[in-house]
Amino acid sequence: MNPLHVAVLMGGWSAEREVSLVTGAGVADALESRGHRVTRIDMGRDVAQRLAEAAPDVVFNALHGTPGEDGTVQGLMDLMGLTYTHSGLATSVVAIDKELTKQVLVPHGIRMPAGRVVASESLYVEDPLPRPYVLKPVNEGSSVGVAIVTEGGNHGHPIGRDVEGPWQHFEQLLAEPFIRGRELTTAVLGGEALAVTELRPKSGFYDYDAKYTDGLTEHVCPADIPDAVRDEAMRMALAAHRQLGCRGASRSDFRWDDEKGVEGLYLLEVNTQPGMTPLSLVPEQARYRGISYPELVEQIVAEALNEETGA
């Protein structure tokens, strides 16, 4: 790849700011190691001015969460005529919203948990589903604000108004049945599913801290699972990537009830801008496939440029 001027957009003000800064730093260092000129931009409210002043050949969108992953920044860059990595406006709007994602994917045969959006206030009156069930924000990533409500848990019966949880921070939540079993994830890059990784938290469940704190989660790549389950996870991840219209890298997260075989595999969500930190899963699966971190970053940039030229 010829040397480029790449603006790496990172940080912002979402709940995932710190992870985005680590992702952005890794991406910027990798691009510079390959001979590219890099402008690092920690996104503030003046982001349009800073992007215009930089005038890059391409923007590497290393933001996570809102507004960098929900279509807001994508729309801004579309209006500015900038070429950027990862998914575009329409895909980002749908994929950040777990309920919209279900409406797109389930009719195409992709198995996802049943559930419904509920007002947080209603949780103080009654449970929306039989326990155990999961509550999560409709449009946050990285397991931000996820709570598992169990029969013997300490949230109360019904949930106590004064008990800490996502119901105190979000007006609406998605309620889904809890799926017992194991946590799996599959990355898609360049129109190909890379591998399946099993995530084994050393305590609790795979929440935000478990994802981004070294030593809290064991990654098994490739996952020690039956071939049929591996193949189905990779098929579903690639199908979701294509059906949603994702570009660059995406990552699909699954729960697998290992007592039910292939039929126990459920897609939970699709991440259109997965993390690229040292603990992140896409670089790990790329390494397993023989793709170095700098090569991975360049491949994502190359796909963005190819999309722009129609190559």
Break the fold down into its secondary structure elements and pairings:
Elements: E1 5-10, H1 17-33, E2 37-42, H2 47-54, E3 58-61, H3 72-80, H4 89-95, H5 98-105, E4 116-119, E5 133-136, E6 147-149, E7 172-177, E8 182-189, E9 192-201, H6 208-212, E10 217-220, H7 227-244, E11 249-256, E12 265-271, H8 281-288, H9 293-309
Parallel strand pairs: 1-2, 1-3
Antiparallel strand pairs: 4-7, 5-6, 5-7, 8-9, 8-11, 9-10, 11-12
Helix pairs in contact: 1-9
Number of domains: 3
Percentage of residues in strands:
15-25%
- Here the CATH topology of the largest domain equals D-amino Acid Aminotransferase, Chain A, domain 1
Pattern of helices and strands = EHEHEHHHEEEEEEHEHEEHH
Please state the average pLDDT score: 92
Strand order of the largest sheet: 10-9-8-11-12
Q: Which structural class fits the helix and strand makeup?
A: alpha+beta
The counted number of beta strands is 12
Number of helices: 9
Helix content: 25-40%
The CATH superfamily of the largest domain appears as ATP-grasp fold, B domain
The major beta sheet can be summarized as: 5 strands, antiparallel
Radius of gyration: 19 Å
| Low-pLDDT regions | 205-213
Shape: globular
Output the CATH class name of the largest domain. Alpha Beta
In the CATH hierarchy, the architecture of the largest domain is: 2-Layer Sandwich
**Separation of the first and last Cα atoms:** 15 Å
How would you describe this structure to a colleague?
The protein has 311 residues and is an alpha+beta fold. Helix content is 31%, strand content 23%. The protein has helices at residues 17-33, 47-54, 72-80, 89-95, 98-105, 208-212, 227-244, 281-288, 293-309; strands at residues 5-10, 37-42, 58-61, 116-119, 133-136, 147-149, 172-177, 182-189, 192-201, 217-220, 249-256, 265-271. Strands 10-9-8-11-12 form a five-stranded antiparallel beta sheet. A four-stranded antiparallel beta sheet has the order 4-7-5-6, with no helix packed on it. α1 packs across α9 (293-309). The longest helix has 18 residues, at 227-244. The chain is globular and about 60 Å long. The two termini are 15 Å apart.
